[in-house]
Design a protein that fits this description.
Blueprint lengths: L2 E3 L2 H9 L4 E3 L6 E5 L3 H11 L8 E3 L15 H10 L4 E6 L6 H4 L4 E5 L4 H9 L4 E2 L14 H8 L5 E3 L11 E6 L2 E6 L5 H8 L3 E2 L23 E4 L2 H6 L6 E5 L9 E6 L6 H16 L5 E5 L6 H13 L1
Parallel strand pairs: 1-8, 4-6, 5-9, 10-11, 12-15, 13-14, 13-15
Antiparallel strand pairs: 2-3, 3-7, 4-7, 5-6, 9-10
Helix pairs in contact: 1-5, 9-10
The structure holds threonylcarbamoyladenylate (TXA) and magnesium ion (MG).
The site of threonylcarbamoyladenylate (TXA) has 27 residues, from strand 5 and strand 6.
Keywords: ATP-binding, Cytoplasm, Nucleotide-binding, Nucleotidyltransferase, Transferase, tRNA processing
GO molecular function: L-threonylcarbamoyladenylate synthase
Function: Required for the formation of a threonylcarbamoyl group on adenosine at position 37 (t(6)A37) in tRNAs that read codons beginning with adenine.
């Protein structure tokens, strides 16, 4: 049985024992293990059924810990860290040689972030090692934004989910790396591009949808519900032309009625993209559990977190 508990001491014990624990963060729940334990890290890949070519993010409690992990800290990375850590920003930096290859998939860079969740920060402070933690979902499934999502994915294959409530941001971190000293955004996420650009100026975006991403692993199909999902420009037309299907709707602000619509998840009545982003995955989890023929979402405004939401919905439709 998987225990769901806020007992940090118990989580410390399990992690010290080279086992894994699901942890809350402000983005999504992660499946965490000691970065230096081959046993724990292999278990993460095994439980998630994640291919070994996809590297993990290292989670720290403070910027001082970065010395142990990264060999370079470019000035623009420092500016971003100052602005957003603890928070939903992951930086790809040159790694130190003590970082095991299994964490970085053999690359010479390592992904790091300081999450902004009080329970996980406390946990990290009580450990003598950083935690590697990918999102706590099986490969290609929707990321979990509460402890029950994690439990229903992994049932008995993990000992504990550290309870931390609903994830405030609800989308994975924004990932930024450096190529020839220039910053590159590899994954749209919980921090909008505009916010990043306010700090370091214009940034190149390589948020690709590759089949086998060479590094900044962004697989085309990702975050996918089991139910066939569509992202459309004209939702009313889509609903009319699928009269014989049972449909679940992801709507930004408004309710919708039609005989074939079985359920509507409204993400933000007031039209707030941050609130919508925080509810997206939870809405997809809910709709996916209803055994409908299809899930449909109307494309979100292409600004701020609307870009990140559209990105995830596009990946959900593949
Ligand atoms: O919000 C988040 O980032 C969550 C929470 C748990 O912190 N974690 C998360 O991890 O989303 P994961 O494993 O699902 O996504 C990590 C992404 C992958 O796309 C991976 O390919 C990329 O980070 N990544 C990790 N190390 C990298 C590296 N050295 N170079 C390029 N991309 C890297
Ligand atoms: Mg993931």
């Amino acid at each position: 049985m998987t225990i769901i508990s806020n007992d940090i001491g118990r989580a410390v014990e399990i992690l010290n024992n080279e086992d894994v624990v699901a942890i809350p963060t402000e983005t999504v729940y992660g499946l965490a293990g000691n970065i230096y334990s081959d046993k724990a890290i292999r278990k993460i890949f095994e439980v998630k059924q994640r291919p070994l070519f996809n590297p993990l993010i290292v989670h720290l409690h403070s910027i001082e810990q970065l010395d142990e992990i990264a060999s370079e800290f470019p000035i623009k990375a420092q500016l971003l860290a100052d602005a957003f850590w603890p928070g939903s920003l992951t930086l790809i930096l040159k790694k130190k040689s003590n970082i095991p290859d299994v964490i970085t998939a053999g690359k010479d860079t390592v992904a790091v972030r300081i999450p902004n969740h009080p329970i996980t920060l406390k946990l990290l402070k009580e450990l003598s090692f950083p935690l590697a933690a990918p999102s706590a979902n099986p490969f290609n499934r929707i990321s979990p934004t509460n402890s029950l999502h994690v439990e229903s994915y992994f049932k008995n294959s993990i000992k504990m989910v550290l309870e931390g409530g609903e994830c405030k941001n609800g989308l994975e971190s924004t990932i930024i790396g450096f190529e020839n000293n220039e910053p590159v955004l590899y994954r749209l996420g919980a921090i909008a591009i505009e916010e990043i650009e306010n700090v370091i100026g214009k940034i190149k975006v390589k948020n690709k949808k590759e089949k086998a991403p060479d590094a900044p692993g962004m697989l085309a199909k990702h975050y996918a519900p089991k139910t066939k999902t569509y992202l459309v420009n004209d939702i009313k037309k889509f609903i009319k032309s699928n009269g014989d299907k049972t449909i679940g709707v992801v709507s930004f602000t408004e309710n919708m009625n039609a005989s074939n619509i079985k359920h509507v998840e409204i993400l933000s009545k007031s039209g707030d993209l941050k609130e919508a982003a925080s509810k997206l995955y939870s809405a997809l989890h809910t709709l996916d559990d209803l055994n409908l023929d299809m899930i449909v979402a109307q494309r979100f405004p292409d600004v701020g977190l609307g870009k990140s939401i559209n990105d995830r919905l596009e990946r959900a439709t593949k």
